[in-house]
Amino acid sequence: MRAGRWHIVVCCMVLFGARSLADAPQDWTTVPGSAFVEAKQGNDSRYKDLPRFSMDIELVSYRSWDDQAPHERTQARVVRDASRFRSEVSGLVSVQDPLIRVVMDPQEHVIMATDPVDLNDAWAIGAVDIVLSSVATCFERSVDGGKEYKLVFKTGAVYDHTIVRYDAQGWLRHTSTVWRQTVQEDPSDRLSAAYRPRLDVSYGIPRTLTGPADASTDPWSLVREGKEGLEAIGAWKDIPIIDTRYRP
Known about the structure:
The protein is mainly beta. The protein contains 3 helices and 18 strands. 14% of the residues lie in helices and 41% in strands. The strands form 3 sheets. Strands 1, 2, 3, 4, 5, 6, 7, 8, 9, 10, 11, 14, 15 and 18 form a 14-stranded mixed β-sheet that branches. A two-stranded antiparallel ribbon has the order 12-13. Strand 5 (92-96) and strand 6 (101-105) form a beta hairpin. It is globular and about 65 Å long.
């Protein structure tokens, strides 16, 4: 599967960084990193209180961090239906229930089966310690009744800084991540142009689902246990499966 497309998916979920481009922001107040963690956990608790919802996400990438015109614009969508979850980002479709997670890549013509991710506790498992140990400085400011945090990270990381905005109700609405290390436009050509990209992600307000269960969140509508292991069904029946689930 293409590394670039997987990298965009990861950037939707993980926020790390390095030294800031702006050494002394003029309209920010320095706060402990725990202030950002508190805001992040408050947002997460709101999602936990919504057992059934859908949400739209927009990803806008810029070839260079200071470009005005986007390099690529991508729409994404996530759906949670009780213990089932579906996401669609950059052509990758991920569907899971408590037993299995199925990731489909139509462009690369492959399906991967893994153990499910704990959606409620993924942030709690080590992520707080990782962020706090990586942050050099954390800034905070008020924006439209909400809060915005700028995480300035230590030297040596891939990214330069991340700005995270929460609205007045505490919902995550936007992140902007700037790379510190350069990325070559053509990784196979060491002489190709190199840039320091920026990725902006805008999050919609979750919409509560009503009515019957959403069939698109059922991974067993895509795969089944066959005599020789997991096999794809329906429109995906001819696509090979890479099964990485833990088998004791």
